[in-house]
From TrEMBL:
PANTHER family reported in the protein's UniProt record: SULFATASE (PTHR43751), SULFATASE N-TERMINAL DOMAIN-CONTAINING PROTEIN (PTHR43751:SF3)
Name of the protein described by the UniProt record: Arylsulfatase A
InterPro entries noted in UniProt: Alkaline_phosphatase_core_sf (IPR017850), GAG_Ulvan_Degrading_Sulfatases (IPR052701), Sulfatase_N (IPR000917)
Organism: Halogeometricum rufum
Residue intervals of the Sulfatase N-terminal domain: 3-347
Pfam family, one: Sulfatase
Length: 465
């Protein structure tokens, strides 16, 4: 029996890893793993947002069928990935820092040990929400109102959350949870009986509403850029209008620093498994839930179907018993195929999976975004779902009646403007229609989600509430 470890680097796009040709040395440890792995040059996430893409990885279903974002939870009648492993005799664990990938959103099904890393006082109020609701007041009155609202038995927790909100205090080792995630992962390795399965989710590359966008130790934050330059150009999370080229360059350098920091944690997991003598018997996959736009196409962050938002790394180190030779593969694949990959490895039934193993040919690749219909989220705006279909080197992006066709030949991003006239345009539109007709359109979006104060605070920090 083999072990399985899936490492997800939140909001990390493939183009910024050095093993994918990036000019800065962002991923020396991942590069070393890549040397003994299958590296998929053109891997696409099934969705450009965490909740839907991770739900796809856990179920083997496209977002169009599980509709986790609209339901507000992962609730479909198929075995979750950890359940497949548990039924095959694996001890299962999950360690996450993203508030979506938690038991509250239905991701604990089949997980023996779930560590959702926290960064605040559980009993304290959602301070960001409080101040947003009182932003119409003068500054001194906002603080006075906060103190008055804090005068109850949880006073110390309220004040602690206030200090964290204002000064970013009490964070774990001055990062966004990576240190504790790695500790929890190695504790799982200590305690688990072989064979085991671990899902580990890191969030340092996800933009936060804090100074300089990424929460990292100082040396890592400014690894690729001087602090003075960051202050001078005014890097922003949500710039108004077109992002100036200088700001975009500095922003990407900060982003690269976060990836380099994550790479160090991946290296620690790899070293730990090697020291235990378990590396050779472990399928070790490194990927991302989605990519990130840093000003390209006038887009910032994720929730976009352009290449920076959905093209992600996929590095799969096969176990010794698996008949897959290391090397680079340039065929396009959907990372949702990891579900079938793992199922085949352990001999589990995954007939419901809508995408084959990443080692199989993917004739078409589909990615979907329904976040505009998340009425419980600030993302929600009643817009039609967006879909992108890849066929050969063509990419069709569709939202309602709006259609854009791009050439993606050997490009990190879309090559040039949309193709206004192409002989295969109608063929791709018909293929897209066939996919969309196959999905269940009956799901109604909920108006609110019920999460505890901790999850609410973290979702708000990440811009979802």
């Amino acid at each position: 029996m083999v072990n399985v470890c899936i490492v997800v680097l939140d909001a990390v796009r493939a183009a910024n890893l050095s093993c994918y040709g990036h000019s800065r040395p962002t991923t020396p440890n991942i590069d070393s793993v890549a040397d003994e792995s299958v590296v998929f040059e053109r891997a696409i996430s099934p969705a450009p947002v965490t909740l839907d893409s991770t739900a796809s990885l856990f179920t083997g279903l496209y977002p169009g069928d599980h509709r986790a974002g609209q339901r507000g939870t992962l609730d479909v009648d198929v075995p979750h990935l950890p359940e497949l492993l548990a039924d095959a005799g694996h001890e299962t664990g999950a360690v996450t820092t993203n508030p979506f990938v938690t038991p509250g959103f239905g991701f604990d099904q089949g997980v023996d040990r779930f560590d959702a890393v926290e960064h605040r006082f559980e009993r304290g109020m959602n301070v960001r929400k409080f101040f947003n609701e009182h932003k119409h007041l003068p500054s001194h009155r906002r603080y006075l109102s906060f103190l008055r609202a804090s005068l109850d038995r949880n006073f110390l927790s309220h004040v602690g959350n206030g200090l964290q909100f204002r000064f970013e205090l009490f964070g774990a080792d001055d990062d966004n949870g990576a240190t504790e995630t790695t500790r929890a992962a190695t504790r799982f390795f200590d305690d688990a009986s072989e064979p085991w399965f671990l899902y580990a989710h890191y969030s340092e590359a996800h933009m936060k509403d804090v100074r300089h966008l990424y929460k990292l130790p100082r040396a890592d934050r400014y690894r690729f850029v001087d602090e003075d330059r960051v202050d001078d150009v005014g890097v922003q999370q949500h710039p108004d209008g077109e992002y100036p080229a200088d700001s975009m360059d500095v922003h990407e350098r900060l982003y690269d620093g976060s990836i380099r920091y994550l790479d160090r944690h991946v290296g620690r997991l790899v070293d730990d498994l090697k020291e235990r003598g378990e590396w050779d018997d472990t399928l070790f996959a490194i990927t991302a839930d989605h990519g990130e736009c840093l000003g390209e196409y006038g887009a910032m962050g994720h929730g976009h179907l352009y290449e920076p938002g959905v093209r992600v790394p996929l590095v799969v180190k096969p176990p010794a018993e698996m008949d897959e030779d290391p090397g680079r593969r340039d065929g396009r694949v959907n990372t949702l195929g990891l579900y079938a990959t793992v199922a085949e490895l352990v001999g589990a039934d995954a007939d419901h999976a809508q995408v084959p193993s990443v080692f199989a040919d993917h004739e078409h690749v589909l990615t979907q975004d329904y976040s505009g219909s998340w009425s419980w989220s600030r993302y929600g705006d009643d817009t039609a779902g967006q879909h992108a279909l890849y066929v050969d080197d063509l990419k069709l992006i569709r939202q309602g009646e709006s259609v854009e066709l791009y050439d993606t030949t050997e490009e990190e991003f879309e090559a040039g403007p949309p193709l206004s006239d192409h002989p295969r345009r109608e063929e791709l539109v018909e293929t897209m229609d066939a996919y969309l007709d196959s999905f269940d359109e009956s799901t109604e979006s909920i108006d609110r989600i019920d999460v505890d104060e901790s999850a609410s605070q973290r979702l708000e920090d990440l811009g979802y509430l």
